[in-house]
Amino acid sequence: MQQWARIAILGAMFVVAYLLILAWQKDYGNAENKAQPEAAAVSHEVSADLPNGQATASAATDVPQANVPAQQTADATAPVSQQLISVKTDLYHLWINPKGGDIVRVELLNHDKNKDSDQPFIMLESDAKRTYVAQSGLIGLNGPDSSRAGRPSYEIEKSAYTLADAKASKDKDGKQHQVLSVPMVYKTADGVEIIKTFTFTQGEYPIVVNHKVVNRSAQNWQGQMFGQIKRDNSDDPGKSDQGIFTLGTFLGGAWGTPDEQYNKLKFANFTEEKLNVEAKGGWVAVVQHYFVSAWVPGELKLTQGNGQQYAAKLESRKSSDDMNIIGFTSPTINVPAGTVAEVDATFYSGPKIQSELKDLAAGLNQTVDYGWLWPIAKLLFIGLQFFHGLVGNWGWSIILLTILVKLILWPLSSKSYRSMAKMRVIAPEMQRMKEEFGEDRMRFSQEMMALYKREQVNPLSGCLPLLLQMPIFLALYWVLMESVELRHAPWLGWIQDLSAMDPWFILPLLMGATMFIQQSLNPQPADPMQAKVFKIMPIIFTVFMLFFPAGLVLYWIVNNSITILQQGMINKAVEKERLKREGADSAN
């Protein structure tokens, strides 16, 4: 029975190692996303890979086309950097191209490029190295983005905006915010005026993109709004080098609806498993490590009417130059002569902050992907947030969270450690019986079971602490990997990034030492081979931990240290009970 307990413990430990390796392979490097070859010339204007991008009226409600019409790409490489509109808020600095009204560059001011740089993190860009832009406009029968002339050139009031241009405004809850509006105007020859407005709110990442169609012509105007994210196959700039490894999580598309709140779609599957879903309250996104860009369809408002949420078609496809495109199109909008209509959507490009994403659309907060252990990971993150609010440091928060988890599990683990302590006490008796009964395994098993029953020992209970810790340990791994709040978070001294490996390998070595001490408090296996395996386990796990996040190793060190204290106390108590009982027996 004792042998089976050892095998079970070994099995549990190797299961932990195996699951860590699986997570490691998933998160370290992304082989399918190969670097995109550099373009021939730097361009701030993006090619018109638009849905329904045909000049014919009959294509207004067709599924978005995968190939770009030639007439719309003729001038796509002409650099127009001087025409870009600069918008700077407290959170980011972005640029809008007046030709088409696309967001072609976003710099996140509150997130650095890497922990050793004071440069802002570049979220979107369109240059020789990378293409990652957010496009929007009006397509369909009368939509200017479906014109044979290419993307419409909007008239602008000025080329630079800051929060100094913002105006105070109250939201639906009565709270006052500083709101910055960036309007652009396009006028047709027959009297239709289209006003495209980007609305920014101080302290918030979401951008509302509104299209207002003022039909002063004598004809009915008809079109659809589209919003899409266009990205090449270049690597994720959010991943970081980890010595001989490269850290990065899922890079690809994602989408959700109220019924199917979170779905991932690899870039390689944008055509084979293309997205083609119509839903009200849906969203599309491109997900990368710590950051996300997303379009959330908004409302349609006709003259003298209240805004109504519209059902949008969510789509994905590959462009003719192998760009990955995921987006939405609204239903057909009819604007009779002499009337006005407005249609909008919200664009988000920034860190994966769960509280903000949750308010935008159902399931968008799940782009913070905690894997199949997300219920445990969510609780751990809530705990970390709570302690961070008290101490203001994520490293100490991990330590306090570990202590809390150990206190919660203390009663269960105490029973297990008590049984293991008894196993340690009766180990000499076990060895004596083994020598006495020799090859008579049947008699040895009977005597051993009688000893377990007499001493009230459960040899399998030694597996319980590890089985309890395994899901918590794995869940914390995903919390550290996915929570942008812990990106580049320092602890103390040489640990300046809890989400990265310990640069001096001090924590992994300490973890190995605590694991060795903890094992020395356990009953030693009678089988020599098992004993050797248990002795090298701390070395194996130390090697594993060399390249894992410092925060995760810190958790394991604190967990082992508390376990050593708990197990040491229980061992002493059981030993005293044993001596007291033997003294009472000898007295009788």
UniProtKB/TrEMBL annotation:
Its domain of life?
Bacteria
| Residues in Membrane insertase YidC/Oxa/ALB C-terminal domain copies | 394-572
Instruction: Supply the alphabetized keyword list.
Output: Cell membrane, Chaperone, Membrane, Protein transport, Transmembrane, Transmembrane helix, Transport
Name the membrane topology term.
Answer: Multi-pass membrane protein
Cellular localisation:
Cell inner membrane; Cell membrane
Q: Which positions fall inside the Membrane insertase YidC N-terminal domain?
A: 85-381
Q: Which Pfam families match?
A: 60KD_IMP, YidC_periplas
Q: Which residue ranges traverse the bilayer? A: 6-24, 394-413, 457-480, 538-558
Instruction: State any GO CC term.
Output: plasma membrane
Q: What Gene Ontology terms describe what this protein does at the molecular function level?
A: membrane insertase activity
Alphabetical GO biological process terms: protein insertion into membrane; protein transport
Which family does the entry's similarity section mention?
Answer: Belongs to the OXA1/ALB3/YidC family. Type 1 subfamily.
> Subunit comment for this entry?
Interacts with the Sec translocase complex via SecD. Specifically interacts with transmembrane segments of nascent integral membrane proteins during membrane integration.
Q: What does this protein do?
A: Required for the insertion and/or proper folding and/or complex formation of integral membrane proteins into the membrane. Involved in integration of membrane proteins that insert both dependently and independently of the Sec translocase complex, as well as at least some lipoproteins. Aids folding of multispanning membrane proteins.
What PANTHER family does this protein's entry cite? CYTOCHROME C OXIDASE ASSEMBLY PROTEIN COX18, MITOCHONDRIAL, OXA1
Q: What is the protein name given in its UniProt record?
A: Membrane protein insertase YidC
Organism, as annotated: Acinetobacter tianfuensis
